[in-house]
Amino acid sequence: MKSILESRPELTKRINDVAEVAGYLWQKGWAERNGGNITINITDIADEGIKAMEPISDAIPVGRTLPHLKGGYFFCKGTNRRMRDLARWPMENGAVIRMLDDCAGYVIIADNPVKPTSELTSHLSIHDYQTGIGSGRKAVLHTHPVELVAMTHHRPFLEKDKLTYLLWSMIPETRAFCPKGLGVIPYRMPGSVELAGATVETLKEYDVVMWEKHGVCAVDTDVMAAFDQVDVLSKSAQIYLAAKAMGFEPDGTTREDMEALKIAFNLPG
User: Fold this and answer.
1) Which domains does the chain show, CATH number per domain?
2) 173 catalytic residue (yes or no)
């Protein structure tokens, strides 16, 4: 059977970017076993050949109705599949799906009947919102950055915007490249409709969402940009914890200096 990637250079590039990021996640220790997941919206490059592909699975319900995704196409990491394997063999450890006209289910169309991530409800809910507002954000990344997850085990860090200002204050790049900050969602059952809804709502206000004691969810124009969001936040967390390990509380950049940075670089937030 021919791969969906054959003679489709733009699709091949986007899938290769997913594979590259999957490798980074594994190398950083953010993707133990089958931890984490990635989805990208490829509707804009779905040609007539893709649209004519027959399903290779039965219809699978999403768990909620997503009106902006009717007939949309997505590449999704497979459930129970390892990031390190996605990095080497993306089309054996992920699949392309097509949303059904009822906006409440999907079918797999290529290359293999690999069922998507168990967090698909959250991912597609985010894609539905981003498509609805025309944001141009086509990638959703969920992963488990060690230092960031560790910080959610400390109750004071869960207060609104506490982590945002702390992480911004560690290094100027975090304020610049994650300008709306990090929103924290109290623990919800992974893969649940409740987590999906809370994530969509929180992403209306923040660049990246932290799922308490679980991991982060980042959204951006492409998967590399989504990875960068998490990477800068993780660096700030590492700087903070390195200072604490040396026996002192880091001073951090002042609120006044952070506000000056916002004005100088015309940052949102």
Assistant:
1) 9-264 (3.40.225.10)
2) no
